[in-house]
Amino acid sequence: MKTIYDVAKAAGYAPSTVSKYLTHHGYVSQAAGKKIEQAMVDLDYHYNGLARLLNEGASSRLGIMVPYLDQPYFQELVQSIMNVSVKQQREVIILPTNYDTSLEQLYLDRLEHQLIGQLIITSHALPLEQIANYQKFAPIVVCERSAHLPIRSVYNDRLGTFKQLFEKIKAAGQT
């Protein structure tokens, strides 16, 4: 596999010049750009996307930890998140867990190591206290009430909603 150093040698420029050309950070003349581009073609060079992502940071990569996608609740929740993410031009990664704590831990580790920029947890098996410890690495939002912990949360008041629904049904004389 060819590296940036191979491209620099073939083009006759320093690796830093090739890096500036590839990342568009800094000035590279048109003549130098053409030589670098030709060296890349000749060598069949392709940059390492993962390395670039880590270098730039994964701040636009949103992970959605979800236990199942075969249930309407989770399907709708993920679809709603994705609709907003597309408008914000954010990359979305679905992280299925099946309530497997080892998978949940793996995804938290990816957050820690900046492979994911933010994490939305729709449901989980790991204790919230353990999940909350990972907020120091990147933002986390859980889809449940978490008043006892300093962790971002969004949730529906299902009990209150059901009570209102049943009161309306009762008031309408339907039992």
Report on the architecture of this protein:
There is one protein chain. By secondary structure, the chain is of the alpha/beta class. It has two domains: 4-47, no CATH class; 57-159, Response regulator (Rossmann fold), CATH 3.40.50.2300. The chain contains eight helices and five strands. A five-stranded parallel sheet has the order 2-1-3-4-5, with helices on both faces. β3, α7 and β4 (140-142) form a beta-alpha-beta unit. It starts with a helix and ends with a helix. 21% of the residues are buried. The mean pLDDT is 87.
Short description:
The protein is of the alpha/beta class and 175 residues long.
Based on the model shown, name its key terms.
175 residues, alpha/beta, Rossmann fold, 2 domains, 8 helices, 5 strands
From the spread of the alpha carbons, the general shape counts as elongated
What structural class do you assign from the helix and strand content? alpha/beta
Which architecture of the largest domain would the CATH scheme give at its second level?
Answer: 3-Layer(aba) Sandwich
Unreliable spans are none
Name of the CATH first level of the largest domain: Alpha Beta
Most strands sheet: 5 strands, parallel
CATH superfamily of the largest domain: Response regulator
The proportion of strand residues reads 5-15%
What gyration radius follows from the Cα positions, in whole Å? 24 Å
**Percentage of residues in helical conformation:** 40-55%
